[in-house]
Amino acid sequence: MERTELIASLKEILGEENVLASEMDLTLYGYDASLEKGRPDAVVLPGSTEEVSRIVGLAYREKIPVIARGSGTNLSGGTVPVRGGIVVHLSRMNRVLEIDIPNRTVTVEPGVLTLDLQNLLLKKGLQYAPDPASQKVSTLGGNFGENSGGPHCLKYGVTTNHVLGAEVVIYDGTVVWIGGKCPDHAGYDITGLLVGSEGTLGMATKIMLRIIPAPEAVKTMLAIYDSIEDAGNTVSAIIAEGIVPATLEMMDNLVIKAVEESVHAGYPMDAAAVLIIELDGMADGMERQAEKIFDICKRHRVREVRLAKSDAERAELWAGRKGAFGAVARLRPSYLVCDGTVPRTKLPEVLGKVIQVGKKYELPIGNVFHAGDGNLHPLILFDERNREELSRVHKAATEILKICADVGGTISGEHGIGTEKLKEMSFIFSESDIDFMRDLKNAFDPVDIWNPGKVVPARQAATA
Amino acid sequence: MGQFTQLNEDLAIAIGQERIKTDQAFTARYSFDGLSPRAVVFPKDIRQVKEIVSLAAKAGVSMIPWGSGTKKCMGATPSGADIVVSTEKMNHMLDVDVANLTITVEAGVKFRDIQARLATQEDRCYLPLEELGKESDELICSDRAHSGCFLPLDPPFSDRATIGGIIATNSSGPRRLLYGLPRDLLLGVRFVTPEGEIVGAGGKTVKNVSGYDVSKLMIGSYGTLGILCEMTLRLLPLPERMETLVFEFPSISEAGSFAEAMLRTKLLPAALEIMNSRAFEAVGNRAGIYAKTGSCLVMVALEGFEEAVERMKKEMLAAGDRLGANTGIGLKEDKHNPLWLAVGNIQTFNSDKNKDLVALKLTYPLSEWKEIYAYCQNLIAGEGLKHTILCHAGSGVSLINLLPEDRRERDSTVGLVSGLRDKCREKGGNLVVECAPPDLKKRMIVWGNIGGAGILMERLRNAIDPSGIMNPGRFFPTN
To answer: What distance lies between CA A161 and its chain's CA centroid?
Structure first.
């Protein structure tokens, strides 16, 4: 199908104003928060499931790629249209359709912003637990596609643990419901497979999420260290002593300084590392848990432990963490964030190695991450215009992921594979592991239109 | 027949004659739903499973993966069961990493042995070890620098079931209320596909979005996508204190109000189990607890920090008084563990006494439970059938065992099951027949409503097992 013909057909489905095809539009929708770039043939803004279904039906008949997109905060190139096609921007489908308190579910359209839903629920004493750092702008559809994490996932699990079902448009435009309010659905856990599949198996047009009562009590602490190793060891020790906090976040000196210079969270500029430790749940016994944590910190030579005494103080401690990526972005023109994840006991060892990688490639690396679940986020700072530096960045990132894979970890904890980590898939998967994923992909996407070129690396061309 | 002889010879070369049993006296022990396998094989590891599956796939014979056989009757009757692949010899714990709160085990490891291995020096364990016999003593961890962990699941048959079987059937129990489901605990898997390939996914980290979440797909797949061989699961620190409260109520109305009131508080009970008196009798007897007058009982599991358990106990006992409980009994850990083990074994107790048992699992949106419970009780009582009901309040699941005692009652189960299913469906739920005598099962709809996702499931099944040899017909009818 010719491009002009495609655009005409799309306009017929969506109306003139909901199809974008200018030079500027195509450039704007050609990238996301990763370093990847591409260019779509058209961008559409559907307002209903029916419109999405018709778009997909057209794409299926004409074999045109379809790329779902929320706010584009994705960090692995998952929303970049590498083979052109139609970018389906779901921002207009942004209604909260139902809050069902007796059944503890909420049903949303994919374009609802994560934090908007959370604020809405909080007013009713309820919460949707996953809290990716980008929650202010990220959409729930994006969270679904990427299986997003966040600081509170240590205790509550990631997005997939909170998705109960979805209305999904499948490869030929048919609309089906998977999962729902009834638990233990008979048959395969299709919902579980689709969450985190980065739009390569289908497109969710309604999402049903689990909501839980907001915790009765919360206790937030900031532990300040003179050595990054001591901070890392504290993390393992807390878990080993039988305490599972709601969050265990860590930042190193580079990040602390950047944060202080931008959001002024009150972190000491000379600290080697800080931990944000948060307990939540029933109030009873929390005091004793906090004391136990305090003891563990002391055993690991903590300089100081600050306890947030009010909601305002708590918000201030968190402001630093939530603003960390933004703060670091002020230091150099670009950064690449790695997402390697390791068994938490390997954390101190891996942190040491990451520092070595920075030295080897002469690149500043800041560390701000979900220490409790071993999810590292080394931020490699550089200038994208410097091609030589950029090539060192990619080498350093690959090396860091290899380090994570080698200690029994994985190459992505919560940001996804996208296009960025396709070549590193072989660090953790054998060819037969990947073949199985290819079989799944074929079953759900027989004509290869769903976000092609992502997640599953193409089979190596057979040598003749 | 000749083809099968050839297969046996090939298998003997691949895994050793001693791992293949074909004499009828032996294979008869592995019969179910009126099917008897022609051979039972005992691979020692995933590599041998690969050998077996590759050879069987080439010969086009059907395979049934088998752990302890506690759930052999679940699902529709397979269209073929040529070879049973037993995981009995795959019983190694490959990596017990308590500091990381993960464990990696082979599929044939028994659930109870995992709990025993994670117990503390004082022998605090999530299952009552003394009831589990000698085997587990040898497994108790000797290098325990930690304060004790557990695998936070309480599936049925937890003293016999293997972890492979539990995951493959998506088994869970009353304490899912606090701890979640297998899908919240399984971090990684290795399995053998129906075409004989070893496939791994996931790993040892709680967060992992590298590639598709294949582990999820294996949960509840009943072996139809491959044979689960190894899996990594999340652990939790053992609760400081564990106690049970038992409340007796005159009827479901008061019991229901109590359960609903408790679910609206900020308290976090591990389980709120509502049961009829016959169910409690079967369960309580095992732990030496006897109900006095109540026709409807609520058992509450409290697990957590000292102070939290203490407060929950106080507030719940007070609420029980206020809401019409005849009595409220508090039971410490020594009774708590055997009691909840018994809850998971109710189907066994029932089937020991009644060979015609029909076991049903009803699922429905949380808000519908009270109406469904009352409807079930009336409908079953109308037929005069003895039965047990266990309702996992707050989870949307009820387990009903029908215990027909004569031919008329036996026949009536078919109509009852269909009536109960209709009610569940009307309320947006479903009913699955988990166990029934083969002749009755043929007259029942086993899976109920698979829903719109059925199209995707069939495409998936056909892509992964195109020749339909893995547990064929267990989910989807085969031609």
So the answer is: 14
Question: What secondary structure does DSSP assign to B90-150, as a single string?
Answer: ---EEEEETTTTEEEEETTSBHHHHHHHT--TT---SS-GGGG-GGGGGGS-S---SS-EE
**CATH number of residue B200's parent domain:** 3.30.465.10
pLDDT in tens, A389-403: 999 999 999 999 999
Q: What is the DSSP letter of A301?
A: T
Looking at the structure, do residues B247 and B364 belong to the same domain, yes or no? no
Question: Is A332-435 in CATH node 3.30.450.20?
Answer: no
Query: Looking at the partner chain, which of B148, B366, B460 has a beta carbon nearest the beta carbon of A104?
Result: B366
At CB < 8 A and 24+ separation, what contacts does B23-28 make?
A: B27/B84
Q: Tell me the per-residue pLDDT of B362-383, one tens digit each, with 9 for 90 and over.
A: 999 999 999 999 999 999 999 9
A260 near A271, Cβ under 8 Å?
Answer: no
Chain B residues touching residue A414 (CB < 8 angstroms): 207, 209
Q: Record the pTM.
A: 0.96
Domain span at B70 = 2-86
Phi, psi of B425 (to 5 degrees): -65, -40
CB contact under 8 A, A417 and B211: yes
Q: In what order do the strands lie in the sheet with B186-192?
A: B93-97, B102-106, B227-234, B186-192, B198-202
Instruction: Decide: A28 and A52 in contact? Cβ < 8 Å.
Output: no
- CATH domain A96-213 topology: 3.30.465
CATH class of A216-321: alpha beta
Which positions in chain A touch B98 (Cβ < 8 Å)?
Answer: 240
Residue B396 is which amino acid? Answer: G
User: Which residue is listed with tokens 């410490």?
Assistant: B332
R_g over Cα of chain A: 22
CATH code for the domain of B357: 3.30.70.240
Residues B141 and B221 placed together within one structural domain of the fold? yes
* Residue B461: inside a domain: no
Sequence-separated (6 or more) residues with CB below 8 Å from residue B408:
none
The predicted-structure confidence for A246-273, as pLDDT tens digits, reads as follows: 999 999 999 999 999 998 888 999 999 9
Q: Which residues of A touch B267 (CB under 8 A)?
A: 282
Placement of tokens 């891996």 in the chain:
A350
Q: Does domain A3-89 have CATH number 3.30.43.10?
A: yes
